[in-house]
From TrEMBL:
One of its GO terms (molecular function) is glycogen phosphorylase activity. Coiled coil: none annotated. This is Alpha-1,4 glucan phosphorylase. Its cofactor is pyridoxal 5'-phosphate. Phosphorylase is an important allosteric enzyme in carbohydrate metabolism. Enzymes from different sources differ in their regulatory mechanisms and in their natural substrates. However, all known phosphorylases share catalytic and structural properties. Allosteric enzyme that catalyzes the rate-limiting step in glycogen catabolism, the phosphorolytic cleavage of glycogen to produce glucose-1-phosphate, and plays a central role in maintaining cellular and organismal glucose homeostasis. It comes from the Bacteria. CDD domains: GT35_Glycogen_Phosphorylase (cd04300). Its EC number is 2.4.1.1.
Length: 835
């Protein structure tokens, strides 16, 4: 085999050695030669960087061998296209994947430093909003772990999700300057830049063979520069690539403008190009019809497809076989313009005819839907899309007209379908419906939990299900146990491993072996002690960062996720006030002490979500200082919830709040991370809660609330929230307490918009589910007092979560959709230089 990398044993050196002395030497070397610092003047960040480079050196070998193998063997590749990758910090995860956590910890300690402090130093790449972006990160971890050739494509936002501060109880957004101190995990590849066109018009011409062709004459061209991050598999040689695109101006000056003396105009054009990848849109579950967002989507999609075509060429794969070479997964509709872009590339740039191009395209793409919420379904005004991407609009019209012909043939007796199914919404101003384009142009369409996939077929995509039933599949979400157990919860990890070995980290189903230990009082006690120790850690953190003393003996009742009305953080808040009112009425009331912890960001433009944050903080002000309450209730809003913080939070929970209105949360993934770490769930039959409850056993899950069917039925019969207000004295007392200004220093206006929305609309049926929730919380209270039985239930939760590993999800994608075989990567062993 010829290759750039010598395929023979090489000498172990300071860039590859993993014994303690070599690690120490390498660390100091990097501090010296890369950070250009000596210990006396080094900051914690210098130490972090030196360690990051030391770890990076040790993974490069696998990465380069992986890339070389893919280039030579041209295997089928899964390309995961996503506008968001919420990676979280890399250092700890890479240490786990390389199996170097313990040796590095020791080496660092011998140098008089603390690994945890260096891990804390890493500024995480927050290039996503929430579940959708974090799912992408878990999936690429599993793809590498399962040794599947894959590449992930996205956007290198200069500013990721904003940092959250809380001022006077309100959320304040601060820009996330995550690149400020440099990013040791990425490698820029300026030589692989690509050009992306925008705007302008199209022209037709007859080519040399007499064939009618279209040429796009753009208004401007933007350069895409790839930044690559290696994505290691867990204890394998595979290291795949996350390739994120940064936008730049093609030249540093527009000389035509410059020569006319308009220097500022020229520089302005440059900064406009760079704006495309400046900032992540901070909305979760709502789309904003902003032109810049469409520019971001098209920019990264065009770069990625051109890159794949280039790669196929390098590998000697003919373009006719593009679909055999690549399976492209569209993570939600954000990258869906790729369907039109691949058509454009095949037709206009590579001379294919329509039928051949369409055949390839529709055998290439698969589409994952992540939500049923109408406000999240992307649609672009025809005028805007046509202005920005004139050629794509023509192609979309052509795709649509051919598609609607098929609809007419299949459903000739039902003309209403045409308007309903059309890719173009013509009911008012015309819009392009991206989910429709995705359905028409993909060979597979999946929801992210069983219930969600079923509801998709019954509601939003019903017509498409009738048209193409064979395209529809379910792939229930999963999360990586490497980050969310091994890295987040080292205590639990060593306890489990001491009992059942470490195979579970690659095969999470093995956790079932813990079931047989549930009757072992010693194991139960160990398990309990682990949870207590982790709770103590969180208490220390909360004391240090929020100045609030929380009691590790109390129930840690945690709701951590984006703030959204459908997720119903306010239902949780109503329960806190219920307890508060009870304690005020009866100060000697015996309740299990509880710590209510909230974490999550609100979209900056989402007023009601921000008001919910304010309400929670206002309740905390009252309960945390009322002597009648004592330490029976504590409420803390944990500021700036992100992946790094999540890793502290999941392991410490006793109770996981998964209380969305049934039918609204597509899957949820936090629900899985909590339960894997031994939290019990209080939840509705929504999203993956349904499957989690089946897996852990109904007796180990606190269920409440209406089902999705009941929610729909109630809506249909005419839901009136006032009935609940008048019919439930305790609920009335809670709402009246808020309305009285009790939590707002007498201000009766502050929370009025929230109360009005609950009493006059209550779209998410908070009041309808209130009583059921309160009663369920009383069952939680009772259950927690039986400490041993709670621990038993907690163990059974952790033991039965094997199904929710992202490895299982990826296997499902592979068998149902991608059909890409694993490829083993050989990495020649290093030999000891002194041996
Ligand atoms: C969505 C959904 C979540 C889902 C996640 C990943 O709201 O329910 O778990 O994607 O599929 N926008 C999201 O976060």
């Amino acid at each position: 085999m010829t290759g750039i990398l010598p395929n023979k044993p090489r000498i172990e050196d300071d860039r590859t050695g993993i014994d303690i002395d070599t690690l120490k030497r390498a660390f100091l070397d990097n501090l010296f030669y890369i950070q250009a610092k000596f210990p006396k003047v080094s900051t914690k960040n210098d130490y972090y960087m030196a360690l990051a480079y030391t770890v990076r050196d040790r993974l490069l070998n696998r990465w380069l061998h992986t890339n070389q193998t893919y280039l030579e063997r041209a295997p089928r590749i899964v390309a995961y296209l996503s506008a968001e990758f919420l990676m979280g910090p890399h250092l700890g995860n890479n240490l786990i994947d390389l199996g170097l956590y313990e040796p590095v910890k020791q080496a660092i300690a011998e140098l008089g430093l603390d690994l945890n402090e260096l891990l804390e130093q890493e500024e995480e790449p927050g290039l996503g909003n929430g579940g959708l972006g974090r799912l992408a990160a878990c999936y690429i971890d599993s793809l590498a772990t399962l040794e599947i050739p894959s590449v992930a494509y996205g956007i290198r936002y200069e500013y990721g999700i904003f940092d959250q501060e809380i001022k006077d109880g309100w959320q304040v957004e601060v820009t996330d300057r995550w690149l400020r101190y440099g990013n040791p995990w990425e490698v820029v590849r300026p030589e692989s830049e690509l050009m992306v066109k925008f705007g302008g018009h199209t022209e037709t011409f007859i080519d040399e063979y007499g064939v009618y062709r279209v040429q796009w004459v753009p208004y401007k061209v933007v350069k895409g520069v790839p930044y690559d991050t290696p994505i290691l598999g867990f204890k394998t040689n595979t290291a795949n690539t996350l390739r994120l695109w940064k936008a730049e101006a093609p030249e540093s000056f527009d000389f035509a403008v410059f020569n006319q003396g308009d220097y500022f105009g020229a520089v302005h054009q440059k900064s406009e190009s760079e704006n495309i990848t400046k900032v992540l849109y901070p909305n979760d579950e709502t789309y904003q019809g902003k032109q810049l967002r469409l520019e971001q989507q098209y920019f990264f999609v065009s770069c990625s497809l051109q890159d794949m075509i280039r790669l196929a060429k390098m590998q000697g794969v003919a373009l006719e076989r593009f679909h055999e070479h690549f399976a492209i997964q569209l993570n939600d509709t954000h990258p869906t313009i790729a369907i039109a872009e691949l058509m454009r590339l095949l037709l206009d740039e590579h001379g294919f005819d329509w039928d051949r191009a369409w055949d390839i395209t529709t055998k290439t793409f698969a589409y994952t839907n992540h939500t049923l919420l109408p406000e999240a379904l992307e649609r672009w005004s025809v005028a805007m899309l046509g202005g920005l991407l004139p050629r794509h609009l023509e192609l979309i019209y052509e795709i649509n007209s051919r598609f609607l012909d098929e609809v007419r043939i299949k459903f000739f007796e039902d003309p209403d379908r045409i308007a309903r199914m059309s890719i173009i919404d013509e009911s008012g101003e015309r819009y392009v419906r991206m989910a429709h384009l995705a359905c028409v142009g993909s060979y597979a369409i999946n929801g992210v939990a069983e219930l969600h996939s079923r509801l998709l077929k019954q509601t939003v995509l019903h017509d498409f299900y009738e048209m193409y039933p064979e395209k529809f599949v379910n792939v229930t979400n999963g999360v990586t146990p490497r980050r969310f157990i091994a890295l987040s919860n080292p205590r639990l990890t060593s306890l489990i491993t001491s009992k059942i070995g470490d195979g579970w980290l690659k095969n999470l189903g093995e956790l079932r072996k813990l079931e047989s230990l549930v009757d072992d009082a010693g194991f139960r006690n160990d398990f309990y002690q682990v949870k207590q120790a982790v709770k103590q850690d969180l208490a220390d953190y909360v004391r240090a960062n929020h100045g609030v003393e929380i009691n590790p003996e109390s129930i840690y009742d945690i709701q951590a996720k984006r703030i959204h009305e459908y997720k119903r953080q306010h239902l949780n808040a109503l329960y806190i006030i219920t307890l508060y009112n009870r304690l005020k009425a009866n100060p000697s009331l015996d309740i299990a002490p509880r710590t209510f912890l909230f974490g999550g960001k609100a979209a900056p433009g989402y007023y009601m979500a921000k008001l919910i944050v304010k309400l929670i903080n206002s309740i905390a002000d009252v309960t945390n200082s009322d002597p009648d309450v004592g330490d029976r209730i504590k409420v803390v809003f944990l500021t700036d919830y992100n992946v790094k913080f999540a890793q502290r939070v999941y392991p410490a929970a006793n109770l996981s709040e998964q209380i969305s209105t049934a039918g609204k949360e597509a899957s949820g993934t936090g629900n899985m991370k909590f339960s894997m770490n031994g939290a019990l769930t209080i939840g509705t039959l929504d999203g993956a809660n349904v499957e989690i409850r089946e897996a852990v056993g109904a007796e180990n899950f606190f269920l409440f609330g209406m089902t999705a069917e009941e929610v729909l039925a109630k809506k249909a019969e005419g839901y009136n929230p006032w009935d609940y207000y008048h019919g439930n004295d305790e609920l009335k007392g809670v709402l009246d307490r808020i309305a009285s200004g009790f939590f707002s220093h007498g201000d009766t206006e502050l929370f009025k918009p929230l109360l009005d929305s609950l009493l006059y609309q209550d779209i998410f049926m908070v009041l309808a589910d209130y009583q059921s929730y309160v009663e369920c919380q009383e069952r939680v209270d009772g259950a927690f007092r039986d400490r041993d039985n709670w621990t038993r239930m907690s163990i059974l939760n952790a033991a039965r979560m094997g199904h929710f590993s992202s490895d299982r999800s990826i296997r499902d994608y592979l068998s149902q959709i991608w059909k890409a075989p694993a490829v083993k990567i050989d990495v020649p062993e290093y030999s000891q230089s002194n041996g």
